[in-house]
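User: Now give one protein:

AI:
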Amino acid sequence: MKIIILGAGLIGVATAYYLWQDGHDVEVIEREPEPASVTSYANACLISASRALPWPNPGSRGTLWRSLTDANAPMKVTKWLDPTLWRWGREFMSYANEADFARLARAKLGFARFCQDELEATLAATDVDCGYRRDGLLYVCRSDATLAAARARVALVGAQGYDVRLLSRDDAVTLEPALSGAGVVGATLAVSDAQGDSRCFTRALARWLASRRERPVRFRFGETVTAKPLQRMRALELSTGAGRLQADAYVAALGPHTAAFGRSLGRGVPIYPVKGFSLTVPVRDPAKAPTRGGICEDSLIAWCPLNSPDGPTMRITTGAVFCGDDNSYRDADFRAHREHFEALFPGALAWDHPSIERWACQRPMTPSTLPIIQRDPTHANLYWNCGQGHIGWTMSCGSARVLADLIASRAPSFDLADMQRV
């Protein structure tokens, strides 16, 4: 079959790989000049399968109130009169109960483990080097309250087969000596969680696919796809500035832009963009910097050490802002990154360096926070692979594997019963 994939981010390129493996003729269309230029460009770089818990939970009403009233809350709602957000939010809150949380947690944690295994299989098969390390991520606690919550989380994910270990302060400092001067009361170590440069992975895999002697994948950059429904939504016409697209099947992997694409076809896709912010800062003193990725449970900043051609850097991410299509940022949006990172690792980074990179991106969140991986209900040759949210890096290859199963009419490699649907 000839298959056209819309979008060359993590999900689109991973999907191209699995469809190429199945013997299809694959083409990828991307409006940006190269892969991984939007949501996949500067994310947290953590493969945090053990953290794959659904956002809607019995405490969501309190979280929502704080997002509206606390200027320092990591989650904020700034476009609260948006009717699209209200529709999304109603479904989100419908899952904010014990029964649905338990059901979605089982599905999401299980899927995340499956996806990480698929990612590792892809890395082994292609020899793509993205600095992947599976030696655990550290989740540090600076208060007794977050340590107690961490203890409960250890039990929850442990019941789903994850090895997450509760650490004393001394254990945490032994594992990460740069924390010796920080006010840390304890931590957890998620043994199988990992890290790697997702932008590097996406671009290297795209090059690998394009360089195959047999059926090289074709990438078309700088082209925006427009869609038009035909025959009362039983057919569709897709085109770019270069003309009409012709294929046996199409895959929509457009990240936060998927909902707008769906609207152009008359299809409601339950995705809302949630903005996050990242800093990439050169390391000044490696002895004071963390050696592995992690998250502060109190401030919810994440960090990941990366290597660049100019030396070691640190990726720092935080924030979840419900602000519609606004992808702008201000200097103030990055103050928490520096403040909370310095509280843990003082003096480690070169905050005055001219090459510091600021970035904002929108994560494609569904109300259940599980992805949409399915065939369209009426367009028989259109498939959706989207809504992986804030853990697209973790879920990329597993989502692609299951999507390839659907196109091949195979039984899905993972049960999709609890996934979000269009």
In short: The chain has a mean pLDDT of 95. Residues 98-126 form the longest helix (29 residues). DSSP finds ten helices and 20 strands in the chain.
